[in-house]
Amino acid sequence: MTGTGTAAGQQTSRETWGGRARSWLRVTGSVGPLGIAVAVLWLSLIVLLPLAALTFHSFDEGWAGFWDAVTAPASLDSLRVTILVSIAVALINVVMGTLVAWVLVRDEFPGKGIVNALIDLPFALPTIVASIVLLSLYGPQSPIDVQLNATQPGLIVALTFVTLPFVVRSVQPVLIEADREVEQAAVSLGADNWTTFRRIILPSLTPAIISGGGLAFARAIGEYGSVVLIGGNIPGRTQMTSQYIQQQIEVDRPVNAAAVSVALLAISFLTLLVLRLFADRIARKEQASR
Predict the structure, then answer these.
(1) Which of 146-155, 187-196, 240-249, 273-282 has the highest mean pLDDT?
(2) Where is the signal peptide (predicted)?
């Protein structure tokens, strides 16, 4: 009986594993295998192959060369400045982007359509133009007597400008689809505006806010055009990693530039991955609580 039971258990295990494998390999959807193959091929040509080539190039001098390039004092200084500034930009966008989205969805005022269209302007405007505009406003000849040229606050202002749409456009659809009856019920039960926002509205907005903040961080960490003029490119103070990479290319150190680029990509990817998993977990908890 024992042998028969063991054999039956093994058979059941094999059937379970086979079922899981077939489920994992099953192709579903409207486009079919051909559409999926085209999408994967396109993604490979546009994203995966260039990233793979960059990664291989960064190790042309071996692991030691890669590590030396990434941990060089100037490289670490630029990474420190970039990460700190990008975190500040993401946090500012989380607060102000959510506020702007709220105003655009919940309030009515003259020119609302124009303001809503202006939110997307940073996507259409060449970032070097943004740097020129900000330099003319906050540079040495500032008409408002505010000097932010070659300072970290100047970097934050420039990067906040180019990353503004991410949180706004992430939060807007969620606010539009929110169930206003739940909010009205909370108010009728005596909840004030802050309590209603904190207990009812914010939990449903959190995944979108995290997603938008993560995208803003990822965009800021790799930005070049908007900071190239107003930043000043001062090593250890205002030199962003993108500027350091450009500097390495100019002095004919392409392997060093590739190594630091891979490190920057890894930081950005891991940040987005962690935030995505965190946002998905919050979304699942929010769904389960309903």
Answers:
(1) 240-249
(2) none
- How far apart, in whole angstroms, are the C-alpha atoms of residue 213 and residue 91? 7
Number of domains in the chain: 1
Does the pLDDT at position 267 exceed 60?
Answer: yes
pLDDT of residue 116 exceeding 80: yes
Give the C-alpha distances (Å, rounded to integers) separating 205 from 45, 172, 243, 283. Answer: 35, 9, 35, 9
CA separation for the pair 221, 245 (Å, rounded): 13
Whether residue 235 contacts residue 74, with contact meaning beta carbons closer than 8 Å, is answered with yes
Tens digit of each residue's pLDDT (9 = 90 or more) over 184-199: 777 777 777 787 788 8
Angle between helices 152-177 and 127-138 (to 10 degrees): 120
Q: Kindly state whether residue 34 falls inside one of the protein's structural domains.
A: no
Tell me, what DSSP letter sits at residue 45?
I
- The amino acid sitting at 175 is L
In a domain, 250, yes or no: yes
Q: Distance (Å, rounded) from C-alpha 12 to C-alpha 15?
A: 5
Q: Are 85 and 156 in contact (CB under 8 A)?
A: yes
| Residue 4, pLDDT score | 54
Q: How far apart are CA 200 and CA 73, in angstroms?
A: 47
Q: Find the CATH number of the domain harbouring 195.
A: 1.10.3720.10
**Mean pLDDT rounded to a whole number for the chain:** 85
Q: Which domain holds residue 210?
A: 63-288
How many CA atoms lie less than 13 Å away from 11 in the CB half-sphere? 6
Residue 8 lies in a domain: no
Report which of 264, 216, 210 is spatially closest to residue 75, judged by C-alpha positions: 264
What pLDDT, on the 0 to 100 scale, is given for residue 130?
85
